[in-house]
Amino acid sequence: MNISRRFALLGVAGAAGAAGLISLSGTNVPPAGVPAIADTAPPVALRREKVNLVAPPHVHPHNQVANQPPAIKEFKLTVEEKKIVVDEDGTTMHAMTYNGSIPAPLMVVHEGDYIELTLVNPATNTMAHNIDFHAATGALGGAALTLINPGEQTVLRFKATRPGVFVYHCAPGGPMIPWHVVSGMSGVVMVLPRDGLKDAQGRPLHYDRIYYVGESDFYIPRDEKGKFKSYDSAGEAYTETEQAMRGLIPSHVVFNGKVGALTGKNAMTSHVGETVLIVHSQANRDTRPHLIGGHGDYVWESGKFSNPPETNLETWFVRGGSAGAALYTFRQPGVYAYVNHNLIEAALLGATAHFKVDGKWNDDLMTQVQAPTPIKTA
Asked: Which of 23, 66, 73, 81 has an alpha carbon 20 to 30 Å from 306's alpha carbon atom?
């Protein structure tokens, strides 16, 4: 299957103009060599299962070990273009989302299952959208087969052949690709081994809770006084947003779409003795997750479960355009800060989350030998 370089790098966006809006007429036709429908008959004999997605940081119910043969897992994503507030100062951005959340929902299947996605682009939207699954094989991860105008929908099916956590994102072509991604259009597929997660010796690993943290870099233009600008539409914002993107210096680096989205009353929760799986993605830039006061007991830094997990990490590295996964069993109660350990981005740009953990304190692990007192003089 040969996909033209022009389609891959330019796509439909080359003629979009400064407004960044795409208007197509008629039915989308894939490039030469890319089938409009599957070459082979669908796996009709397989069981079908409809999955109801939930907004991150939560993840839909699923089995960690497959208890039935491979199935066709049916998912639905609806594109929603909307204006959002991204910080405590009321700064706004015209976001592009799947199912209204940043990041988009995490989808869980097992190796050998089929993902069948219905992608919907309501007529109320202004732009064409599609989806590139890093977990998929062929046709630009499905992007070449899923480009739809407002008022259209499409269905894509692919087989989950590689275990791990994989990013998906919008990729409509040319400069529209980074714009759509940094405007919120990315999520993760988790493909579990059929027999569940294992350590380096092949022993089973289990989690009591799972949370999905999607890290985003936003590029919101400023006016001549340094104040963040606001726009009436995404098209109006495009030209200056692209200029800000070219500088490669984000205005915000946030978890789950907004400064403080996972702190305070929005903190993720757990109990002492519980094991939590943290899935962390960054579709555009490298990041360095760190749990202050905790560790990565088992970490799939590259996110691929066929590789043995590293152990006892203090900070792990998630490459831009990928996702990682870390297991940790909480041993002490309290509030844990979970950060991007570029501390400038954590403290000044927003890349901080909290875990609130209840339970009994263990003095053997840590104790305050002496409370603060005035310095003694000789």
From this structure: 73
Residue 48 confidence (pLDDT) above 50: yes
Pairing type for strands 289-291 and 334-340 reads: antiparallel
Buried b / exposed e over 190-207, threshold 16 CB at 10 Å, is bbbbbebbbeeeeeebeb
3-state percent breakdown (helix, strand, coil) of the chain, nearest 5: 10, 35, 55
β-bridge pairing 71-85 and 47-50? parallel
In the numeric block, which tokens belong to residue 79?
């594109």
Alpha helices, DSSP H only, in the chain? 5-9, 143-146, 176-182, 234-246, 343-347
Per-residue pLDDT for 26 more than 70?
Answer: no
Average pLDDT over residues 173-193: 97
3-state secondary structure string across 298-320 = EEECCCCCCCCCEEEECECCECC
Counting residues of the chain whose pLDDT is more than 90, the rounded percentage is 87
pTM: predicted TM-score of the whole model, two decimal places = 0.89
Token pair, residue 260, equals: 């403080």
Rounded to the nearest angstrom, the gap between the alpha carbon of residue 216 and the centroid of all alpha carbons in its chain is 8
pLDDT value for 143: 97
- In this structure, the number of other CB atoms found within 10 A of the CB of residue 4 comes to 13
**What length is written for the chain?**
378
- Percent of all residues in the chain with a pLDDT value above 70, rounded to a whole number: 88
Query: Which amino acid, one-letter code, is at 208?
Result: D
Radius of gyration of the chain (CA): 22
Token pair for 59 = 């993840």
| pLDDT at residue 378 tops 80 | no
Cα gap 155→116, rounded to integer Å: 7
Contact criterion met (CB below 8 Å) for 309 and 200: yes
What is the average pLDDT across 32-41? 48
Measured over the CA atoms of residue 125, residue 126, residue 128 and residue 133, the dihedral's sign is negative
Q: Which residue has the higher pLDDT, 319 or 12?
A: 319
Task: Name residue 169's beta-bridge partners.
Answer: 132, 186
pLDDT at position 140 over 50 = yes
Amino acid letter, residue 83:
K
Query: What residues pair up with 253 in beta bridges, in sequence order?
Result: 217
238: left (phi over 0), alpha (psi -120 to 50) or beta: alpha
* Domain annotation for the chain: domains and CATH numbers: 5-26+45-192 (2.60.40.420), 209-236+248-358 (2.60.40.420)
